[in-house]
Amino acid sequence: MADHVARFRVMGSEAHVAIVGGRAGLLDRALARLDELERRWSRFLPDSEISQLNRSAGRPIVVDRTTYGVVAAAVEAWRWSGGRYDPTVGGTMARAGYDRSFDELDARSSAGPVDHVACPTPIEIDLDPYPGSIAVPDGIELDLGGIGKGAAADLVADELLAGGADGCCVNIGGDLRVAGSPPRPSGWLVEIEPGPGIEPRMIGVAEGAVCTSTRSRRAWVGSLGPEHHLRDPATGRPLSTGLTTVSVVGARALQSEVLTKCAFAAGADEAGRIIAGADATGLLVTDEGRVVELDGLAPFRAAAALEPIPAAVGRTA
């Protein structure tokens, strides 16, 4: 029931923007903004600010405030998560064959490394808020990946409301943020896809974020065998912790995206505790195909058919 809707590709993913109310020009502004953020944040574009930082060998570079903000958030997420989330996995994924946009990657076969190696830690990344410079030491390769999509969804949703939209939905490859007044009468209905062969779950969200990370996509074959984009920072190897898919329902997409990665790294036994500890909810899919709906998800499931539609809680910092 949105007034302005577009589906397109950005950040190597299918994207969907829907706006309730506001001027028609808001949709064009949102698409242009997402394209700009990709050109700033992609590690696959040689002229992006992230690529420049990865080549800087410790030399401070003044970046756009949005780039500074998402890198600072990524480093803070690494600290908060005790290293379960790590934005320095770019190098190990490139060595494993994920060295270009997944749209261009042959998932059946790709060059791979001689061996997996641990990711360097972000602790040596130097962030100077004035004048907004970042120095990335030699040997560290930032990859904003999921956190970049989550941050972009949050940023564009906030800007749409500031620009006069009554409400909006910004979905970038499974990192989704809804904000403002939802469309009536159905509200925002979000389909969570747990994985191949598993029935999707429909939830209703009035305000908040829904983010999903899965091993069943962005997978390829390297010289050492099957690979995927979810990495263990301690070893550089693909994560194998008993989970296939993690979906988080929280307040903002950036934090919810980080929680999916933390839950994956922690494994099936600890994932639910980590998500609940951030005042969020969601669902887990184990390697055996068992779907675990976490405490707090039931109202969102019920809201897919009945009003009132709840707002996600979650921590915003």
Note poorly predicted spans: none
Question: Compute the gyration radius: what is it?
Answer: 19 Å
Q: Biggest β-sheet: count, sense, barrel?
A: 8 strands, antiparallel
Give the strand line-up of the largest sheet: 1-2-6-7-10-13-14-15
CATH fold group = T-fold
* Annotation field: number of helices: 8
Explain what the structure shows:
- By secondary structure, this protein is α+β, with helices and mostly antiparallel strands.
- The chain has a single domain, classed as T-fold, CATH 3.10.520.
- Helices cover 29% and strands 24% of the residues.
- The chain contains eight helices and 15 strands.
- It has helices at residues 25-41, 49-54, 65-80, 90-95, 145-162, 253-266, 268-277, 298-303; strands at residues 4-10, 13-20, 61-62, 126-128, 133-135, 167-172, 175-180, 188-192, 201-205, 208-214, 219-222, 225-228, 243-250, 281-286, 291-293.
- The protein has an eight-stranded antiparallel β-sheet, covered by helices on one side.
- Strand 14 (281-286) and strand 15 form a beta hairpin.
- The longest helix is centred in the middle third of the chain and has 18 residues, at 145-162.
- The model has no long low-confidence stretch (mean pLDDT 85).
